[in-house]
Amino acid sequence: YNSFKLIGYERLKQHDALMQAVIDHPVMYFSDTLRSLKDTTARIAIEKNVIYAADTIYQVLKSNKLKHHAADTITCQIFKPNFIKALIVTAEPQFLTLLQNDFKGWKVLLDGKEHSHFTSNHTLISTIIPAGRHELVFVYRPTTILVGATVSFLSLTALLLLFSFFWKCLF
User: Fold this and answer.
1) Which has the least CB within 10 A, 7, 44, 48, 155?
2) Which residues, listed in sequence order, are joined to residue 88 by a DSSP beta bridge?
3) 1 by DSSP, 3-state: which?
């Protein structure tokens, strides 16, 4: 059972088997099979370790030869709402999925360098992990919040400067 609260999964509700497969996974998991979301409408049973992506992403990634081994490991080292760090050890390349909505602002870093990711299962963050030992980091930095904080800080600074100017003029 995964106690990770799923928010914004309206599209998953249309596919009960896919929703159950998502819920049954841990917060991060490996997969070596990618299918198009078009397949979910034709399938009754959805395999647990298969991830689904939009057809445009599927067409780009389907040629990847990936393989999961039982000895492959994910060790979560830090888990915060906007920062997740894990040590990944894999014998061969494969997909790694994080049970987190892929909102704008999420970045994936592999060994300290920005790494591409895509949306899987209608809403989750997935990426391809190469074979070997890697440090994987997910960072959430939404630009709208950063811009809002900057505008608020500048506005407060301007108000304080204005207040101090008028205070000096009056006294």
Assistant:
1) 44
2) 74, 134
3) coil
- Contact yes or no for 132/105 (Cβ under 8 A): no
* 3-state SS assignment for residue 34: strand
Q: CA-CA distance, 111 to 137, in Å (whole number)? A: 8
Sheet bearing 73-80, strands edge to edge: 73-80, 83-90, 132-140, 106-110, 113-115
CB atoms within 10 A of CB 161: 10
The residue to which tokens 């709208």 are assigned: 144
> Residues 30, 90: contact at Cβ < 8 Å?
yes
Q: What is the pLDDT along the chain (171 residues), one digit of tens a residue?
A: 344 445 555 666 666 776 776 677 788 999 988 888 887 655 545 666 788 888 899 999 988 889 888 899 999 999 998 999 999 999 999 999 998 888 889 999 999 999 999 999 888 999 999 999 999 999 998 877 778 888 998 999 999 988 888 888 877
- Answer yes or no: are the C-beta atoms of 120 and 126 closer than 8 Å: yes
What 35-42 contacts at long range (C-beta under 8 Å, 24+ apart), as own/partner pairs, is: 37/122, 40/15, 41/15
